[in-house]
Amino acid sequence: MDFSVSAFVERLNTTPYLNRETESNDSSPLDEAFLRDLREWTFSPSYTNTKVFLIPPLVCFVAGILIIPSILFVILSRFSIRQETRYILLGNALLCDLIYILFYTLSAVFNAANLKLPKETCVLLLFLLALAYCAGLFTAAAMVLDTYIAISFPLRYITILPASRAKKVIVLLWMCSAVFLAILFLLLWSTQNYMTYVLEMCSVPVILVLTLNGSNATKLCYWLTASVIFLCLFVMLCCYAILYFKTRKSGIWESISSRASVTFLMHHTVLFFYFSPLLAFLVESLLYINSVIGLKTGMWVSLAICNILMILPKVLFPFLYGLRYREISASLKSMVRRKRLCMMSPAPSPS
């Protein structure tokens, strides 16, 4: 990230971009004060310590690679499992998380190694990251709605959400995510004069901070995206609350260690981990826009949010959801036992 940010600053300083600032204040999102702060951040000794934030993505990547493909294999290889809507949605959510972890770790490694990516590669990488995150969030909301329908309408659940319809819902979620992000990317590309230089760094935390210094169109995209995410999380929270009030008189909440109580706590834990990064970004944005915190503090906060808070739920999700289902956990245990027996069985003696 040292090379990319330095190159970004130098390119901006050597172009006539700042000379146009006085001509159009609305189209010049970066001013001299911001560039000075960015330059100080780039060449400060503390900037080199940001590579420590590479550790959480690498740890999450290793953990995700170990567990997510195993659960996906179980879902795809068992006919009875892949015919249930909840497992189809779970598999799609895990696929989104795996894609996000993979590409974000690659992005973090490239930035830590000071590797300069081509602009087309950077655009593709950022688009895939945003697509995986958006599709994963929509799928998580669909999983909550699926649980709500299953409990509220148990007799009509099979007709409302059969497996065939769930697959169509997944395709629709990916299409909506791609169209929504394509519109945002095109709007940003057509309204921002400095997007060419921003793509040279290809760092998600830095780009998020730069977005707050963008034009009105950029800020509109920023708050529109935040509003969509807030809407999904609000729908999830409302469904959980309605389910609780509908089932609290059924007696399943009497014991704190009951399966219903543990499942309810697990759902809210996942919801908290999905909600906390957005809440942290919102607080950071308000503080930064109102000049309560500076660029250096904003960069540290963005790094912490992107490299820890946003990627941590992607690793906790398969452990909290995937291993919670009895069918999946039983299949995984069976696979481990068979592999252990194969390793312990003696090799055939040569004839």
Compact description:
The chain has helices at residues 2-13, 32-43, 55-77, 79-82, 85-112, 119-152, 157-160, 163-191, 195-198, 204-211, 216-247, 259-289, 295-309, 312-320, 326-344. The chain is mostly helical and 351 residues long.
Catalogue the unreliable spans: 1-29
H/E topology pattern: HHHHHHHHHHHHHHH
Largest sheet: none
- Helix-and-strand structural type: mainly alpha
Give the C-alpha Rg: 23 Å
Distance between the termini: 61 Å
- Number of beta strands: 0
- The percent of residues in helical segments reads over 70%
Which percent range describes the beta-strand content?
Answer: under 5%
Note the total helix count: 15
The chain-level mean pLDDT equals 76
Give the overall shape, derived from the CA principal axes. Answer: globular
Please explain how this structure is put together.
The structure is a single chain. The protein is mainly alpha-helical and 351 residues long. The chain is built from 15 helices and no strands. Helix 3 (55-77) runs parallel beside helix 14 and helix 5 (85-112) packs antiparallel against helix 6 (119-152). The termini are far apart. The relative contact order is 0.13. Residues 1-29 have low confidence and may be disordered.
